[in-house]
Amino acid sequence: MLHKRSIVHMDLDTFFVSCERLLDSRLIGKPVLIGGTSDRGVVASCSYEARKFGIHSAMPMRMAKQLCPEAIILRGDAGTYTKFSQNVTDVIKDSVPIYEKTSVDEFYIDLTGMDKFFGCHKLASELRQRIIKETGLPISFGLSLNKTVSKIATGEAKPNNEIRIPSGEEKPFLAPLSVKKIPMVGDVTYKSLCDLGIKQIRTVQEMPMELMYKVLGKNGLSIWNKANGIDNSPVVQYQERKSISTERTFNKDTTDVTRLKGIIIAMAENLAYQLRRGNKLTACVTFKIRYSDFQTYTQQQRIPYSAMDHNIIPIVLDLFEKLYNRRLLVRLIGVKFSHLVEGGHQVNLFDDDTKYLNLNTAIDKMRERYGDRAVISAAGMEARTIGRWNPFNGEPPPLLPHRKS
């Protein structure tokens, strides 16, 4: 049945810029940059007019200003973009049987079997037109038999267009494209491939699978499969997770403030890490404390959407200070993040200080490679591991589980 699948990848074009243009039509046709407005900020999104000057996402704002001094720079608003994203999600949810939302502006849709009733390409085209009409946002899509080819096709369809790759045409379509078009081929992998003389996908297709494995290991096998249009990964039904939390019950009640703060920091740090792994942001932080007499208190605070340690940890510690009563022994503490939305690093780029973004990105990469406790705050060293599961991919969230200590 895999060769009969119909998978659509939809991606909103220059999403943040498009949202701003809906709010202010004077921005249409002009070079627009969204992101941190100071020289230490970074570009979160830019219009096609700005890209002509060599500007791209994640570029330092200072450099972008030099490349295009006349660009209009806006700080952006994550809450506004989330609302527009939800509008698009509502249209898709109302129109298709199975869809997967992978970021604030990106969707996979499984239309397998729908050709018996409507014609998959026609259905996808009508859905795209409906999204444009009802939300005012430009959107592109690629249609093929799997996620990889559809995602690459979407990139070729932009801006504001659509491409269908018929079954059996995957390899010819991919062949002339740059290997950098393959999902998961970042700058480092691309440089490694270029050093081997591999710049077009066609070259990978002509190489033996064993050679790719020898050169790049398991990553090489995955790249070889994608280059040959092979991808059997399913579209995972989208379900919005509204909150994420963790608690710790002590075997012996304690008043050790240093220990309590250390574990609280570890909890907040680990939960924030899981948010970033799941491309999520939180807008509400809750702290919970239970004393030895089983009296339980909670307090919450709304915050600007974030998944960054330096924004969240001080809030959690402040809530602890407000609730902690030094005359009583503590039996349990807990931290909860709620009002979650899609976003992740893409939205965190609005942070003016790039050192925090770069620090968290580097730490997260080390954790993914060497384990979740590879890099931690010194204050949280006493807390135990949280496991390496992602709570946003349908698996249970074993975050600092409710265990005795």
Could you write a compact summary of the structure shown?
The chain has 405 residues and is of the alpha+beta class. Helix content is 40%, strand content 20%. Helix 10 (209-216) crosses helix 11 (218-227) and helix 12 packs antiparallel against helix 13 (309-323).
Describe this structure in words.
The protein has 405 residues and is α+β, with helices and mostly antiparallel strands. Helices cover 40% and strands 20% of the residues. The chain has 15 helices and 13 strands. The strands form three sheets. It has a five-stranded mixed β-sheet. The protein is globular. The model is unreliable at 385-389 and 393-405 (pLDDT under 50).
Question: Any descriptors?
Answer:
40% helix, single chain, alpha+beta, 405 residues, 15 helices, five-stranded antiparallel sheet
Low-confidence stretches: 385-389, 393-405
Measured by DSSP, the beta-strand proportion falls in 15-25%
Biggest beta sheet summary = 5 strands, mixed
Overall mean confidence score, pLDDT: 84
Secondary-structure content class:
alpha+beta
Structural Rg: 23 Å
**What is the CA-CA span between the terminal residues?**
50 Å
* Total DSSP helices: 15
How many β-strand stretches? Answer: 13
Shape label:
globular
Structural topology:
Elements (H helix, E strand, L loop, with lengths): L6 E6 L2 H9 L8 E4 L7 E4 L1 H4 L9 H7 L4 E3 L3 H18 L2 E6 L2 E5 L9 H16 L3 E6 L2 H11 L4 E3 L5 H5 L12 H9 L5 H6 L2 H8 L1 H10 L15 E12 L2 H21 L2 E12 L4 E11 L2 H15 L6 E9 L2 E2 L2 H4 L5 H17 L35
Parallel strand pairs: 2-4, 7-8
Antiparallel strand pairs: 1-6, 1-7, 2-3, 5-6, 9-12, 10-11, 10-12, 10-13
